[in-house]
Every structure is written in C-alpha cells, then in structure tokens.
Design a protein that fits this description.
Elements (H helix, E strand, L loop, with lengths): L19 H6 L4 H7 L3 H11 L11 H6 L9 E6 L8 H8 L1 H15 L3 E6 L4 H16 L4 E5 L2 E9 L9 H8 L23 E5 H13 L1 H5 L10 E6 L6 E5 L5 H6 L13 E5 L8 E2 L24 E6 L4 H15 L5 H18 L5 H12 L12 H15 L1 H9 L5 H9 L1
Parallel strand pairs: 1-2, 1-5, 2-4, 6-10
Antiparallel strand pairs: 3-4, 6-7, 8-9, 8-10
Helix pairs in contact: 2-6, 2-9, 3-6, 5-6, 5-7, 6-9, 12-13, 12-15, 13-14, 13-15, 14-15
This protein binds flavin mononucleotide and iron/sulfur cluster.
Flavin mononucleotide binds next to strand 5 and helix 15.
Length: 434
Amino acid sequence: MATFEPVLMRNVGVEDSTSLKVYESRGGYQAFKKALAMSPDDVVAEVKKANLRGRGGAGFPAGVKWGFLPKDRTRTLLCVNGDESEPPTFSNRVLMENDPHQLIEGTIIAGYATQAQVAYIYLRVEFHEQFHVLQNAVDEAYAAGYLGKDIGNGYKLDIYLHRGAGAYVCGEETGLIESLEGKRGWPRIKPPFPAVQGLFRLPTVVNNVETLSNVPHIIERGADWFTSIGPSHSTGPKLFCVSGPVQRPGCYEAAMDITCRDLIERDDFGGGMLSGKSVKGVLPGGVSMGILTADELDMKMDFDDPRNYGLLGLGTAAAVVIDQDVDMRVVLRNMARFYGTESCGQCTQCREGTGWMHRIATRIAEGAGRIEDLDVLLETARNMGMMPGLSICGLPDGATYPIETIVKKFRQELEEAIRSQPPGRADMVLSVLN
Ligand SMILES: Cc1cc2nc3c(=O)[nH]c(=O)nc-3n(C[C@H](O)[C@H](O)[C@H](O)COP(=O)(O)O)c2cc1C
Ligand code: SF4
C-alpha cells in the first residue's frame, strides 16, 4: 500500500504549531496569497473541480454549495461549523487546537471565493481551550494583515468566534444560525436554504472545520492533486477518529479507501483490540449512521460504501468499537436516550418518536422488554425523520439508523435477552413505567 503523507495533520506534534511564525515557516498563508491573485470565481471552480465533499456529515460538495449563492447578492456571510456535537467525534477539535491558522487560512479563502464580508466560527461550549487557541491565532492574523481591511485584491474580512450553549441540534446548520442570532437553537424549515436566506436573513454559507481546512491545500497544490487521493467520489485526505477498547484510540488521517478493519487493526491506526477483547460491533460514522457487525468490517470508509451495509452514510467518520462483553440492550438504550434528550421538540414525530424509542429501549435494558417491542422500535423508526418528509431537520434520521440497525443486526441477542428475563418481570415493570 502506498504511504500516505498527512496533509491536514502535518503540523500536529510540531512544537509551537499554533503560532503564526511556525505556520508560516511551514508554508502557511502561501495559498492565501495565491487565491487572492485569482478571481473569486476561479477559486470556486478549483474547489468544485476537486470535488471537496463536506466533512460535517452530509458530504455535500463545497464548491457546488458556494455556487448556490445568488449572483446579485450584495452581502454574504460565512459560518464555520465547529460545534462538533456528534458523539465520539473529535477531529475538528484536533485541527483547531493544533493548527488554528490552517482553519483561518481556509476560512479566508472560502470567504474570498464567496465574497463574504464576515465569518463566524461557531464553537461548542466545551471548547474552552480551543476558543483561546483560535482567538490568539485570529489576533495574530489581524496583526499580520491577513484579516481586516483590504487584505489583498480589495478584499476585507472579519472573523468572530462564537460559543454555543451546549445543544446537539445547534450543529445542524440552521439551528446554528438561529443560535448565532441569539435565539433558541431551533432548526429552520427549508427552503429557503441558508445560501439564499441564512444568518440575519442574508445569503450564508455554512461549512465544517475540516472541510475548510482542506481548502488551502486545494489552492496550493491544485484540484488534480486532491482528486488523486482516494476513491473517485470520495476525494482528498480525511480524518478518522477511533475510540473504544483498542490499543491506540485517537484521530488519524488517511485516504478514504481505508476500511473500518484497517482503522481498528492496523498498527499505524487503532493497533488492534486490547488483550482479551474482540469486536462485537462498530458504530463507524459517529453514532447517527448505524452499526456494523464484526463480519462487516471490510466496509470502505468513503461516502458511498456505508449504504451497502444499511448505514445512513459516512457521517463524521468516527468509529466507536464495541466489544463482546457489551450488552446490546445497553447500547440501544444509550442511543435512544441521547436522541430523546437532544430532540428540540418542534416536530411531533421527532419529539414523540425519540421519546417512545427511549422509553421502550429503557424497559428492554431494564429486563422488562417484550419481543413485540423490537417491532415497535422498527416501526417508530420508519415513521419519523426528514426522509419520510415528517421533520424539519435530520436529527430523527440520525436517531433511527442506530436503533434500526442494532435491532435488525443484533435481533437474536436482543430476543434471547428478553426471553431470559424472569417470568412476570415485563408485566411488573411495565405497570410501573406506563
Ligand atoms: C442534528 C444534526 C447535528 C449536526 N451537527 C453538526 C456538527 O456538529 N458539525 C458539523 O459540521 N455539521 C453538523 N451537522 C451538519 C450541518 O447541518 C451541515 O450539513 C454542515 O455543517 C455543513 O458543512 P459541510 O458541508 O462542510 O459538511 C449536523 C446536522 C444535524 C442534522
Ligand atoms: S426534527 Fe427534531 S430536532 Fe429537528 S427540528 Fe424537528 S424536533 Fe427539532
């Protein structure tokens, strides 16, 4: 296998990597200079040609998104999504705390391409350290003339950092926009999409931290270099998180032809399971994409292959390994509890559906389940979400995939656990719960 040269994480581990001096000494802000010598349309065209697909979860091509902005607009805003709210996902954090100037350079180039006047970097509330690292880097960039008035080619850009208050749904782009406006982070009905009417009702682009961190490299090395990495529909370098009972949990960079098995087993990634542990299942894309069994680990970690395994997509490419000692009833309950708690409650199917799933999964985990509960979970999962057209945002789709795939792929284990509970337990506990 050809050796992969880290791109996004090339400065991780370098002494003083967060400083402007070190970033510039390693080639930083050269792409900025190159981009500002190009026309904004040419920058958009290069990113489109690279087929840079969004790293925030949906995989939508960044250049195409930028092209949706109305041609006759007079104002444009850019939001950088650093909410990183998906469980087991920490790749944005690694980028921000180790290489903030890479993100700032990507933000400036994306701002120039879209002619944004202001960019907001939205951070989850827990990112205290990352906030300070980024704020120092923004201050350095202003002092060096990379931000502020006339930074080149008549372009000016201001960047502001904004911290959320701690809600999963504020990672959804219109929830994020509402939160930035100082309101409750309730996702908006679309259309209008943010490109037409977003923050403060102005044309707005929302992109993920990792997506924008790729942009300087595309401009510096060209779209052809970018498309030469990975499968044809999943181009460029990608960060993957690995957690659970593996030897080397962490954040790794690779091309997207890597498999889930490689991530867990290869010495340069997860390094294999801890001694005495074996894989029972893996949630490979954050929790919202669904689960793989131990027989499905050869799935490619790209934008397409996950669908062949009944998953929603690549998601955040953060793999959580579950070992043979874990009770799947508990995994099911934890998933259901998370979405039941995080639903913002605007849409009936999501609010009630995630609540039902949580209550049913809880009684199964507490030894009071019924076999029919598994079918009720599947039916509930099928009847909520954006995909049947019943909700404002994608949270319930993310809620249903782990529930549905756990019930379908681990049904035998769940049924055996339900059947082995003491006789009469279901009736006794159900009467308390109902
Ligand atoms: C419930 C929910 C939570 C989300 N959380 C995040 C998040 O934390 N970070 C993120 O970048 N995108 C998140 N997204 C996706 C965003 O809505 C949006 O697609 C993304 O920020 C666009 O950036 P990209 O095109 O660069 O990926 C979430 C979506 C949903 C439905
Ligand atoms: S789908 Fe759920 S989380 Fe999304 S807006 Fe509706 S109630 Fe809120």
